[in-house]
Amino acid sequence: MKIIKLSIMYALTVLLASCVDSEVVNDAVPEEIRIPRSLETEIENVEIGNEDVVLEASFSDRTGDRVDNVLISWESSNTSVAEIVENNKLRAISAGTTVLTASANIEGELFEETFTATIVEPEIVEPALRFISSLAETGTILTGETITLEAEYTDENKDVDTTVTFVWSSSNESVATINSDGELSALAVGTTVITVATEGIETTFELNVQDRVEPVVVIVTENTNIDSGTQLTLEAVFNDNTGQVNNNVSVVWNSSNTSIATINNNVLTGVAEGTVTVTASVTFESMTYTSSFEVTVNEVVLISASGQFGNANGYSTSGDVTVTLDGDKIVVTTAANFRAARASRVPMYLTNNPNSISGSVLLVAGNVNRQSGELRFEVDANGASPEDFRYIIQWCSSISTTVGIAELN
C-alpha cells in the first residue's frame, strides 16, 4: 500500500509586550499548511485498479516540532475520478484529475492545502516473444552448419519467464531442420521460415541457406618480373566460404628468399637476381588459407663508359669521368681529381666529334667553368646510351672551340 506523507506547518502567534509602553508587536509567521514538493509527484499517475493510496500527513508547529493528535481530513473535488475512503485513502475510479484538499481545524482555525491528483488507465502490457540469436538478424547460414537458437518470453508484468516451453519448427525441412531444443541444421541451399511459439504467441524469421564453398586467396598482382632495386606492390583478395570477397581479413605476405626479394607489408623490393616464391596467407575461422606465385628479380646491368680529360687547344683540364645509363637518365660523374678548363663559359657535351657540337650531341651540363672535384650531372637519355658517344668534351661557347676532351671506353 502506497503511503504519502504531508507536512503541515502550524504557525504560532506570539505576542510580545514592550517594556516601554503597552504597544503589542506581532512577529508570528503566517498560519498555513505546507505540503512538500514531493507529494505532488507521488500521485501524478495513479493507475485504476491498483490498491488504495494511503494519504498520511503530519502537523508541525512553528518550530518544526510534530504536533500529535491533530486530525487531518481529506476531500476529493471529483468523486467520479477518485474518492476518499476511510478518511485518508485515495481510491482511483476513472481516468481524469481531481483536486485533493487536506485540512485541519486547530482551536477553531481552519488550515488547508490543495493539490491535483491524476488518475490514469492501467498500462496494458502484452506478452512478448523474441529471438535472441544473431542468426535471426542475419538470416543467412551455410550448408552443413549447425547452430542452437534461443528465444525469450516476457509476460504481462514485463518479467522474463524462464519456465515456459518453446516449440520450434521449420517450414521447409529439406532446407533446414530444428529440434525441440532449438538446434538448427542447414541441409541444402534454399529458404525456410523458422518459427518459435509459446503461451499462444509465436514469432518467425526467414532463413536463407547458402552453399558452402572453399575459401580461397586470389592473387591480383599481375607483374612477376622486376629489376633489382625496384619495388612491386602486392595485391590479393580473399573469397570466404560464401564465395564473396571478405574485406574484414588481413593478408600476410612472405618471401621464400629475402636475399633475392624482401617484403614490407605488401611492398616487395628486388634485392638481387633470382626467383622467389611469394605467398599470401589469410586466417579465417581458425583456418589458414594461402596462395603463391613466383617473382623474378632481374639484375640491372648498368651501361657505362669512362675516360680521362686532357688538355685541348691550349686549355688545361684533367680528371676522370664516367658516363652511365640509369633507367631513362644519362648520369655523368667526375672524380675527385677533376679540374675543368678556365674559360668564360664551358658547357659539357657528349659527342662523336671532339671538335664540334653539331650533329648527334647531348648537352650534359650548362657550365662547368673552373669547377673541380666530384660532380654529378643528370639528363634525360631520350633513347640514347653511353655507347652512342665516343667523346665527352668541354666546349667554350664564346670562341666555339673544345677546351677539354675525354675519349670514352
Outline the structure in words.
This protein has 409 residues and is mainly beta. The protein has an 8-stranded antiparallel beta sheet, with no helix packed on it. Strands 1-5-8-7 form a 4-stranded mixed beta sheet, with no helix packed on it. The protein has 4 domains: 3-120, Immunoglobulin-like (Sandwich); 128-210, Immunoglobulin-like (Sandwich), CATH 2.60.40; 216-298, Immunoglobulin-like, CATH 2.60.40.1080; 303-407. The protein has helices spanning 37-42, 135-138; strands at 3-9, 15-17, 24-26, 46-47, 53-60, 73-76, 82-85, 89-92, 96-106, 109-120, 128-131, 140-142, 146-148, 151-154, 167-170, 176-178, 183-186, 190-198, 201-210, 216-219, 225-227, 231-233, 236-239, 252-255, 261-264, 267-270, 274-284, 287-298, 303-311, 319-326, 329-334, 348-351, 362-365, 376-380, 391-396, 401-407. It has 2 helices and 36 strands. Mean pLDDT is 86; it is low at 1-30. The chain starts with a strand and ends with a strand.
